[in-house]
Amino acid sequence: MNVGLFIPCYVDQFYPNVGIATLRLLESLDVKVIFPMEQTCCGQPMANSGFQRLSAGCDKNFIQNFADCDVVVGPSGSCVLHLKEHLHSSEQPEEAARLRGNVYELCEFLTDVLKVDALPKARFPHRVGLHTSCHGQRGLGLSSMSELVAPKFSKPEHLLRLVDGLDLVPLTHPDECCGFGGTFCVFEEALSSKMGKDRVNDHLRHGAEVITGGDMSCLMQLEGVLRRQKSSVRVMHIAEILTSGN
């Protein structure tokens, strides 16, 4: 299959190494990757602020860029969820529908499509805390929700446990929101900051050396708290850990 690599705009601008790690990871698994050079924002910031109509140009650009791809994979649960639920086109409704049904978050693609059950070269000998992002968990179904009486599962956790030497630390509140929420952190600054501090403290109490996750937007929120606290704890996207040692 031809896999289109979708790199969200904030990853491209602030965390380009995450995009590089995602490409390296997919290619190490013998995936043929296409990277459309004219891709840009998915339109989520406008939609989150109540201006869905302003994202029409983003929709058109996305469809044009990924028209030749069988599936699209991106290292951001929130952006992928937005595309799954809101990518539309009055000019190309069938192509928009096809892409909506074939866009995957990275961990989702690795576990559900590629069925990855081994990463023989990956090695990361550190204590790692996994941040479970709301969009990935509640929107994409990447992991079970702690408040439900149901079988427990986590696709990101499954992948992390394939990494040699990695010590995945338990958390008191494994799926609590970090407080980022896109524009929420701007309009509700005080509440957002307190939620971020609570999440960081949970990881610190359990001795995490690194905090990882599938959404750099959430990790950016936690990184800001860590920097202000002058902590030595790092944040790393899960793609960076899964390619460590390669």
Task: Show the helix and strand layout.
Elements: E1 2-5, H1 9-14, H2 16-28, E2 32-34, H3 44-48, H4 56-65, E3 71-74, H5 77-86, H6 93-100, E4 103-105, H7 106-113, E5 127-130, H8 134-139, H9 155-160, E6 167-168, H10 184-187, H11 189-205, E7 210-213, H12 216-228, E8 234-237, H13 238-242
Describe the overall structure:
The chain has 246 residues and is an alpha/beta fold. The chain folds into two domains: 2-113, Rossmann fold (3-Layer(aba) Sandwich), CATH 3.40.50; 127-242, Rossmann fold. The chain is built from 13 helices and eight strands. Strands 2-1-3-4 form a four-stranded parallel β-sheet, sandwiched between helices. The longest helix is centred in the last third of the chain and has 17 residues, at 189-205. The model has no long low-confidence stretch (mean pLDDT 94). Residues 3-84, 128-222 form the Cysteine-rich domain. It comes from Spirosoma agri. This is (Fe-S)-binding protein.
Brief write-up:
The protein has 246 residues and is α/β, with parallel strands linked by helices. It is built from 13 helices and eight strands.
H/E element order = EHHEHHEHHEHEHHEHHEHEH
Please count the beta strands (DSSP E, at least 2 residues each): 8
Please give the domain count: 2
Instruction: Name the shape in a single word.
Output: globular
Organism: Spirosoma agri
Pfam families: CCG
GO molecular function: oxidoreductase activity
Protein name: (Fe-S)-binding protein
